[in-house]
Amino acid sequence: MSTPLDWKGYEPVLIPKISGLHQIDIYEKNGGYESLREVLLNKTKWPDAVSVVNEVKEANIRGRGGAGFNAGLKWSFMPPVDGGPRYLACNGDESEPGTFKDRKIFEYNPHLFIEGALIAAYAMSISTVYVYIRGEYRSFIQMMEKAVSDAYAKGYIGKNILGSGFSTEMVVHSGAGAYICGEETSLLESLEGKRGYPRVKPPFPAQRGLWGRPTTINNIETLANVPLVIKNGASWFKTIGAETHPGPVLYGISGHVNRPGVYELPSGMPILTLIQDVAGGMRNGKRIKAVIPGGSSTPVLRGDALEGVNMDADSLRQAGSMMGTAGMVIMDEDTDMVEVLWRISKFYHHESCGQCTPCREGTGWLEKILDKIMHGDGETRDLDLLLDVTTQMEGRTICALADAAAWPVRYTISRFREEFEARCRKSVYALA
Amino acid sequence: MAEIIIDGITYEFEGQHKLLQFILDQGKEVPFFCYHPSMSAPANCRQCMVKVGQYVKDRETGAYQLDDQGNREVRWFPKLQTSCTLDMTDGMVVHTQETDTLVQRAQKDTLEFILINHPLDCPICDQAGECPLQIQTYKYGPEGSRFEVKKVHKPKRIELGPRVILDAERCINCTRCVRFTDEISKTNQLTITRRGDKNYPITAPGEVFDDPYSMNTVDICPVGALTAADFRFKARVWEMNQTPGLDITNGKGVNVDLWTRDNLVLRITPRFNPDVNDHWMADQGRDVYRLYNENRVSRPSIRLEDTKGSMDDGVAQVKTSWTNALDTLAEVLHENKASTILTIGSPYASVEENYALQKFSSLKGLPSPFFTPHILEGSGDGFLLTDDQAPNTEGCRLLGLEEIDTEEYKKRIKGASVVLMLNDDPIGRDILKASDFKKPFVVVFATNHTDTAKAADLLIPTTCAAEHTASYVNVEGRIQRTFPAKETRYTNRRLDLEMSEGRLDRYGTTFDNWVTEENRIDCKPTWVSLSELSQRLGIPFSFEHARELVAELSSQHPAFEGISFEKMDEERGILLRRAELTT
Amino acid sequence: MEYSFSKDDLAKIDEIKSRYPEVMPATLPVLWLAQDKFGHVNEEVQKLVAETLDLPVSHVHGVAEFYTQYYKKEMGKFVLDVCTCLSCHIGGGYDILKHLEKTLGIKAGGTTNDGLFSLQEVECLGACGYAPMMQINNDVFVNHLTPEKTDQVVEGLRKGKYPEFESIAMPLNPNTSASKETV
Q1: Which one, of A126, A91, A127, A101, lies nearest residue A223 by Cα?
Q2: What is the domain-level CATH number for residue B150?
Q3: Does domain C78-158 have CATH number 3.30.70.920?
Q4: Looking at CA atoms only, how far is residue A106 from chain C in angstroms?
Q5: pTM for the complete prediction?
Q6: Is the ipTM here above 0.90?
Q7: What is the span of the domain harbouring residue B69?
Q8: Of C86, C171, C175, the CB nearest to A347
């Protein structure tokens, strides 16, 4: 485990302290699009696309959308160029409850992301980049559209970029209200103008993605890291934060803290430091009851089990949770965990696309049982039923939404069982 | 050759296979709902889960790695797999519900999920008895329900179109119906609406599901969500007999099943034939069950008063005995000059009927029979509907019947003294008018009281495609045959080995209130009537069963060489070469 | 009401279509365009979109029904989407929703009789750190809601004053608030 961290001395790189950086000329003045220029034109340093893929792979940018997969490795799954179109879909759906970080990039440093996406496009010989942004982010979509059109005007996107001979297009595409479209294959369906039903894998998007062509899907924040890696090198990137999960991270902190918001800090920050120092401590000096570390689907951690837990994949796995999107929800001692879990389950019930059985039926069942318990009509056997239902959902569906719905139930009940039992009557009869 | 081990048994295979279909092809079972062999596999029901692994091979030597006991080591996939979408690979090891409790548990879990929001209304559901959900719940499902909260409610009794009714609560969202309109009929009339557990299939608002193939969605619906407007609540499936037959509404020769109860055909569904219609049929062909039941010619009729050339049968045609009818016919044929007697074949009649007429005319020294096809340009759709409206035009051609156009047809009728016509409706087809029958004495071998039958002078009731064994040649030259589904006055299920016998048939007697004697039509196959006629005329023509006619065709007619009903059954029809017609 | 696209709309739709290799991907953006124009995408608008794009109406209907932001029926002039999901829930989102129900005299899912306001309870909008919050007409977010602020917003809307985009700085990065001028 790496040792943090002089976080106070950390200089943000994803969203640096520069005013007006969202404007393209200010971005350029501060070294913007230099990485793209390097990659396209400096053939000594970047002889070919593979060299770019390798550098990014080496940097180990773990996907910031939740899965934590090495972005460069993902790029390397693209099949050889065959002359047909190839696509990059940038995932700005950002709809996991507790997550509100990519919007900061759209607002404050859109060109960093655009530059990253263009480098990725070059590295994978992408013909069109689609930037999928959730429909609720209309304000941010407008910002992105402006930024993309400015980048077009300056010749960073389009035909023969910077005279390199490389061409690619970029299109901003708005979602319209569906959490599931953050799932990568569902996002592709939505881009194709359909109901956002996740696809059966295999075939994987790298083989058959948008319109049956090779496609890679990357999170916005993931791509925003790319120009930094190109500029400063993979070895620099790996010095930031946690060894196995390096790089800057946009922590979204919400809930009962004094200073909620998005913070750019190195990965691997101790959760307690984030709460007590970074986010200004608990509101009204209350005790921490629970922390959801990476968006609502990641297993909740008890407030009394946070000592030594850092925000990186390994540390969180050991603690029994996951990094997810680093969207942290902090709950104080007055929080009703039954209600919280009910609300999370209501969300997944609402957002299940309904395509496949265990999720379509299971998410509703979970919510309804929790609703019953919340209203004092639950029995202790219902808790076991809830756990049973989660077992029946996990790993049995086309995409991971069922898992995302099941984990909070499983772990909230197992980690706060006493609170749930207190709300339930003792069962007289067993269930069938 | 590549091999796969399923439940401990090794199967060899070549080429690309999806696991589920392969398992089904071996006669084994894995439960499923959404999968359909003729459509894309969305893997959305998650019912066909199996445990899958791969034998571990040493990378260098290629030899199987063995465990401590000397058994081949298996690397299991971390999750259960849906067998419908899984590509088989060499050395794959599969455990189905037969051998693995984990798989059993998963399948049971999925069924529990499917059932929680499914109405438990099997006793009043039309699908009961032929419901994959019911059957698979019985075999693999949970024994009780743990669902004690409120079910999701959705619209019921929605008329999607004129022929299909939706009960959205029963729907399990397998999307077979939507995929059918997207991939097979290509009308795109259905979609899934809403989201999550509120999902159900529907047309666009204000649009009618009038797809000419709409009722296939009823067939493939694995639950009682889609039912046929016409058939629902008519019969329980276990009361009916299912008899293979052919669609007679056009030239495609779609394979069907006739569903009968008490000698009424209640519905017609497609029967799988990959060479003709796959799993499908057009809605149009399903409606002819009425033709088999209603408005039938039962017992011969004869015109008494001189109302010739009109269709006022109620007054003019009276029932008569078979003896009188055939005596009259023999007399008419005897009295008139052979060259003025017309024999007319029919593309609506079977090969056997046309051949019988052909042979009879030749023995009696009458002019050879002719026919005119019934083609409506533009009715075909390149799928299962053809321009040809009749089921056996090609059969008439192969038999060598003279093919004439409608003008010529009309002309010939005008000059005739007697017309002997197989089952056809030239008046209904607007070739003739009733008044054209003023002069000749018209004898019609008829199944139904068509306009032509009504104008006839002598009506000989004849068996329909639901009552006889006979063959028909489709537009592609494929000869296929029917089985008798309905009893006539002269047939008996218990004696006729080709007929199926259902529960009610087996345990019913004529004294039971569910046995209706009138449903058995007083009619005979045309060749039987012609045999009885020949006896009176002293002609050596005698056939009891179509089999005898087929045997004769098979040995004597080059176009039909080597055919037999058994061969047609085994090979799902025999493709006859049209070139042989000319020889 | 007759729904139709103007010449400009059709030009815009052609431009949208040019972004994709096929027509179907234009479904979502054109539904958005239609909703911005007509205020909703009811059955007739869905049909118009389908006909304009030459796609099956069933397809457009299925898509419109899948995505929650498309209004399948006519809505009030101002649609208030109050988030009650996880972070907003623990931050008092339901209190704001109840407060609005009381002030407007309607339940979530309803529209006021004067047709001015529709109120909806919605899932996470991605403003978790600024809870509780709501979105107006699928557009701007109004953050850090209190009953008082909610009242102000409602009163403002009544007077035709549309809330402005609130740029919220990253706490450790005060410079970021300077980008207010983007909108």
Answers
A1: A91
A2: 3.30.70.20
A3: no
A4: 11
A5: 0.95
A6: yes
A7: 2-114
A8: C86
